[in-house]
Structures are given as structure tokens and as C-alpha cells.
Amino acid sequence: MDRHNHSSVIRVSLADWLVDESFDDEPRYAISVVVARSGVRRSALLRYEEWGLLEPTRAGNQRLYSEADIDRIRRIRRLMIDLGINLAGAAAVLHLRQQLVTLQGELQAIKDQQG
């Protein structure tokens, strides 16, 4: 997504709308690694968790994140920074995106049964 400073036009590419759930969901990264890879502060990650936007796996009191979690963090940041959406809005958008993923899976299952 591009935000141009000279106008209020926000450009969204087709890639921003495609739903790709191929990211590995195996939890393997400690929070310090996720902070370094995503550029998001630890406090922001904890806030995302409070809002239900992230659900890291727990190993004792350590949080473990997956590639899918890191992708989700990047999507949250793009919504907030590029589009100026607040955290509640980002939560709503991501909820709608998850519904789309579910519907795409159901549609594919129907297509597979028919053909």
C-alpha cells in the first residue's frame, strides 16, 4: 500500500487483497526475535495480544510466535501506518479477512466435490 504525501490518495495493490494462508504456523520465535524481525515494540505485541489480534503459543511463561504470526503483525502495522486505522479498526478488518479465508476454503471444498 502506498500513501502519497502530495494528496490523500492511498493506492492498494492486488497483493494487498489476496488471501495467502501459506505461512508456517509452527511456533518457534521468542518475542525478542519477533521484535527484531517485525520492527514492532514488545509493548505493541502485548497490546495486540490483549486485543485478541495475536495468540502466541505458550511454553511456560515464554511466548512463541510463528511465521504466520509475524505476517499478521506486519498486516496490523500496514493497516495502522499506511491506512491510518486505529487498533480497533485493524481488529475489525482482520476479523473480516479471517471470514474471507474461511469462505474461500468452503468454496474450494464445494468446487472439489463437484469436479
Name the quaternary structure: single chain
**What fraction of the residues are assigned to beta strands by DSSP?**
5-15%
Q: Describe the strand arrangement of the main beta sheet, using strand numbers.
A: 3-5-4
Task: Detail the poorly predicted runs.
Answer: 2-6
CATH second-level architecture: Orthogonal Bundle
Alpha-beta classification: mainly alpha
* Total of helices: 5
Total separate domains = 1
CATH-defined fold name: Multidrug-efflux Transporter Regulator, Chain: A, Domain 2
Shape descriptor reads globular
Distance between the termini: 37 Å
Would you report the number of β strands? Answer: 5
Instruction: Output mean pLDDT.
Output: 85
Tell me the radius of gyration: 16 Å
The first-level CATH class is given as Mainly Alpha
> How is the main sheet built?
3 strands, antiparallel
- Relative helix content: 55-70%
* Run of helices and strands: EEHEHHEEHH
Description:
The chain is mainly α. It has a single domain (about 1-115), classed as Multidrug-efflux Transporter Regulator, Chain: A, Domain 2 (Orthogonal Bundle), CATH 1.10.1660.10. About 55% of the residues lie in helices and about 10% in strands. The protein has 5 helices and 5 strands, in the order ββαβααββαα. It has helices at about 15, 30-40, 40-50, 65-85, 85-115, and strands at about 1-5, 10, 30, 55-60, 60-65. The strands form 2 sheets. It has a 3-stranded antiparallel sheet with strand order 3-5-4. β1 (about 1-5) and β2 form a beta hairpin. The chain is globular, with a radius of gyration of 16 Å.
